[in-house]
Amino acid sequence: MSSSRWIRLIKIKDEPEHVFGESVGRTVRDQWGLPQGRPVDALGLLIIIAKSLPKHKTRPPPPDKYTLALRKALLFFNAQKSGKLPKSNGIPWRGNSGLQDGSGLADVKGGLVGGYHDAGDNTKFHFPMSFAMTMLSWSVIEYEHKYRAIGEYNHIRDLIKWGNDYLLLTFNSSATKINQIHSQKPIQMATSGPDIAGEMAAALAAASIVFRDDSAYSRKLAKGAATVFDFARDGGKRTRYCSGNPHVEPYYNSTGYYDEYMWGAAWLYYATSNNTYLSLATNEGMPRHSKAFYMIPDLSVLTWDNKLPAAMLLLTRLRIFLSPGYPYEEMLQIYHNVTGLTTCSYLQRFNVFNWTRGGLIQLNHGRGQNLQHVANAAFLASLFADYLNATGIEYILGANPMNMSYVVGFGTKFPRHVHHRGSSIPHDNKKYTCKGGWQWANSCNPNPNTITGAMMVGGPDRFDKFQDVRAIYSYTEPAMAGNAGLVAALVSLTGSGRNGVNKNIMFTAVPPMYPASPPPPAPWKP
Predict the structure, then answer these.
(1) In the chain, which segments carry CATH 1.50.10.10?
(2) What is the pLDDT of residues 12-27, one digit of tens each?
(3) Hey, what CATH topology would domain 65-507 get?
(4) 420 flagged as catalytic
(5) Which of 21, 170, 193, 482 could potentially form a cystine with 372 if both were Cys, beta carbons 3.0 to 4.6 Å apart?
(6) Is 41 one of the annotated active-site residues of the chain?
């Protein structure tokens, strides 16, 4: 089609077609310095006109509610930071803390400063802290594109680094002991503590994948993970890390450690591509000792204590995307099948768990701290399928009989009397002793400092009722392990960025399962 014929498809009222075409041609020639008398190519004219038009940037769609809730949930971790805080931390009422932690330990250079406070108190529990870091890293590995799309990628990497830098301080280079901080008192473990060491290995290994762009730091994390996992596997010292420990056992009692062996080994395989770890994770002794295939409802719920459903899903990922075959296929197939049954057990129609009338699944069978389990289950379900039954998250964000959000700062109605020391004591530049701070513990006034993004891990009871009372911590206390699952579930649900997981980041260190195709033959020459 000639340029004049193409231009005649556009007509101005009361003006002859050929006049319009000729005038446009003259205008274009004059503006762009084209020689007179030469016809203007139609496609070239279209490009020139397009470049001449003013640029109109399309506004991105407003963030959905999951994105808004996610941004707030991440801020909870800023409020839980311990140590010397950077000015960019963004929580004006949270100052430096724990600067003398571990100062009396001769073999720990610089002490044990850093990490995160666990919940509403000033204690640093390494077991749930490590679990929280693993969950945050897992969410980044799967949904990095979504974090980038909403502008939170650097933020969550900072949170992950803050926690893992601290974990690296807690064991020595030969991993002959692990140091912990409980109630501001350092404790050295004489036994291997395979549960806590296995979880620490998982956290460090997962973080090494997140920071794959920083090769030196990534290697440091992977080396630390391998070192502490060797400590966990020491056959002569195996006992639960909390056994007989009055500072830990009443709060974070570990019921076993074979789930951490599966979990830690799976993450170390992804971080290092060392088949020894994959062989361990798929060894028939792992599910036998951990009762992974017994289909016990409690063991199908992901918690800071039970990693079985997450470990089996993590290994199912390998089967789905890479299909490694013999000798791993048989066990991976069983893990895959059990993962499917576990996910189905979360659906109401199968009657495995009770549900409240308001639509909340009771993964803890009516006991306390249910919302963290609901968030974890939502994350697992979103990874196992391309879709997610988001009922649990909707409930947490306000679709419940109380018509309130259980995430502080999200919506207009949310808990105001959070069981949290830093949030409940006024930020008035006055110093209060530990005893002096108790005057606000039982106060009926709302918290003077809003701990944005904190999820009430206790949440409502089995009758959908919630008491916003600071003294009743079973309702109103937030915790790291719960918020990490919330963050992971929310990023999986947000509509920002493309849908689905990133299939490849997890396998950055894993070589191809099959040999590369041979090069094409040389061209035939007669």
Answers:
(1) 65-507
(2) 344 444 443 444 445 4
(3) Glycosyltransferase (1.50.10)
(4) no
(5) 482
(6) no
